[in-house]
Design brief:
Residues 1-27 form the signal peptide. This protein has helices spanning 3-18, 107-131, 141-147, 149-160, 189-193, 204-207, 256-263, 287-297; strands spanning 60-62, 65-74, 81-87, 92-99, 163-169, 175-182, 218-222, 236-238, 250-253, 267-271, 274-276, 282-285, 304-307. The chain is α/β, with parallel strands linked by helices. It folds into two domains: 60-193, no CATH class; 204-307, no CATH class.
Length: 308
């Protein structure tokens, strides 16, 4: 066999013996580095929030009186509903308590139980309305009873002493009781939550002869258009922050005519610049008017009537 053939056979046999050449292994993927964890952000210091205003219906007109509705109670007969109210002009809270007579028993016993239930319901309704009464520019009664046990006890005592002014007994023995609680007296709600509640002045509508003789028969503060709201201890001050040492008693009305009935035939009238405070009950006068207002108050016990 020629030498060239031997060489070709040798090379072929060597190639078969070695087999296929392995491909180089793929390099392992490098692990992705994890981002460094951020340190937890420092919490901002807690900020004390102002008490949340209690939502409710706006003060509504009832003739010349300023009457604020606070919830309704369905009456036992017909489709009528009674509205619990804060009457800022007559200075009284009025609610209705309902007592359903039991199905069984003597009629007299059923009426007695129904009256007891009506009284319990009326006191509950009164408590709910009292909570929503504005005390001053920063607080409602609810805020004060939560913060002070002594005030809460006094308020509860006033509620339990609410007077029954009307009783209605239905043929089935059920009972409706109308209860009232005065606002601006030491024996009423103001006496429980306002430390410096002034002695009430007899307004001209009650006893005109009791007022001292001064140049003015009364003062009218016209707060219409300012968003002002009535309160047990509203403050009157200047837009620059000047205030009064003694807070005068105030009556609220809804019309100029109603203000004239209480302030007499020679009233001194001021226009409130704006209202202030969380409850919108503080009344701000411009500086010149505040000086005149303060001077008029210093001349004697003059009634102050606010139109809202």
């Amino acid at each position: 066999m020629p030498a060239r053939s031997y060489l070709a056979c040798f090379l072929a046999a060597s190639f078969l013996a070695l087999g296929p050449v392995a491909e180089p292994a793929a390099a392992a993927p490098k692990p992705t580095p994890k981002p460094a964890a951020k340190p937890p952000a420092a919490k901002p210091p807690a900020v004390k929030k102002a008490p949340t205003p209690i939502p409710g219906p706006r003060t509504q007109e009832s003739g010349d009186a300023l009457v604020e509705p606070v919830g309704t109670v369905p009456e036992l007969q017909g489709d009528q509903q009674f509205t619990n109210t804060i009457n800022w002009t007559k200075r009284v809270i009025t609610v209705l308590g309902i007592g359903i007579a039991p199905d069984r028993g003597a009629l007299q016993v059923r009426r007695t139980l129904a009256k007891s239930n009506a009284l319990e319901d009326g006191l509950r309704q009164m408590s709910e309305v009292v909570d929503k009464v504005r005390v001053n520019a920063d607080a409602y009664v609810r805020d004060m009873t939560v913060a002070d046990d002594d005030i809460r006890n006094k308020v509860n005592s006033r509620i339990r002493a609410a007077k029954i002014v009307d009783t209605r007994v239905l043929p089935d023995g059920s009972v409706e009781l109308k209860l009232q609680l005065p606002l601006f007296t030491k024996e009423g709600l103001a006496g429980a939550v306002v430390k410096d509640e002034p002695s009430p002045i007899q307004f001209i509508a009650d006893a005109s002869g009791s007022l001292p003789t001064t140049q003015w028969t009364g003062i009218i503060l016209d707060a219409r258009g300012t968003g002002a709201q009535p309160a047990l201890a509203a403050a009157v001050r200047s837009v620059e922050g000047q205030g009064l040492i003694d807070r005068p008693p105030v009556a609220y009305v809804h019309s100029r005519e109603g203000a004239g009935d209480l302030a007499g035939d020679k009233p001194l009238t001021f226009k409130i610049k704006r209202s202030a405070g969380l409850t919108r009950s503080d009344l701000l006068l411009d500086t010149a008017d505040f000086s005149k207002f303060k001077d008029a108050l210093g001349k004697g016990g003059i009634s102050v009537v606010v139109i809202i």
